[in-house]
Write a structure and sequence with these properties.
- The chain is built from nine helices and no strands.
- The chain is mainly α.
- Helix 4 runs parallel beside helix 7 and helix 7 packs across helix 9.
């Protein structure tokens, strides 16, 4: 394993990071790694996830549902950094229990048990994480409880976090200080 080393940050990247994560808070390690290229960091910060009109800000998805799809994709792809950041910073307000958060990685039965809607969201996340079409059962479960608009948004969020998971894994971004470790999967 290669030791993770933060890049030297250009002033433009420092300004972008200060706008996204105002001092005295420190930007997550992933953002700091992306800061080596201000254009990439700017596109990320202003783009489809963090931007003013990004998927984390549409207000269309319940926070627990949004976090469930993110935790499932990042957990399945073993992106410990991103999974831990979401548990530590969004998990407290998402409405998901600690048992449900852990079950996004372990597949153990959570308490409380997944609802049909949550199973549908997990089906979307699993298909994206595995990069495969829906099974007939997944498709039926999804269509039974999600609107077409919700389905498209969950697919979009899951796809973006598949890419973020890849960045975390390839760059070997370590777990954020204070963020939980990924539970051991069976």
């Amino acid at each position: 394993m290669v030791e993770f080393v933060l890049p030297e940050l250009p002033d433009e990247s420092k300004a972008i990071l200060d706008a996204v994560v105002p001092p005295p808070n420190r930007a997550p390690l992933l953002y700091l790694a992306m800061g080596a290229n201000p254009a990439v960091l700017r596109a990320y910060a202003q783009g489809p996830i963090l931007g003013l009109h990004g998927l984390l800000h549409t207000g269309q998805l319940d926070p627990a549902d949004r976090e469930l799809v993110i935790l499932r994709v990042t957990g399945r792809r073993r992106a410990e950094h991103e999974w831990g950041v979401h548990v530590a910073y969004f998990g407290r307000t998402s409405g998901l229990t600690r048992s449900q958060q852990a079950a996004t990685v372990t597949d153990e039965a959570p308490d409380p048990a997944w609802s049909p809607r949550q199973w549908a969201i997990i089906g979307i996340a699993d298909a994206i994480a595995d990069q495969r079409p829906f099974t007939d059962d997944e498709d039926a479960a999804i269509r039974a409880v999600l609107t077409d608009a919700e389905r498209v948004e969950f697919l979009s969020v899951a796809s973006l976090y598949l890419g973020i998971s890849a960045l975390c894994r390839v760059l070997e971004i370590p777990r954020e200080p204070g963020a939980p470790a990924l539970p051991e999967s069976p």
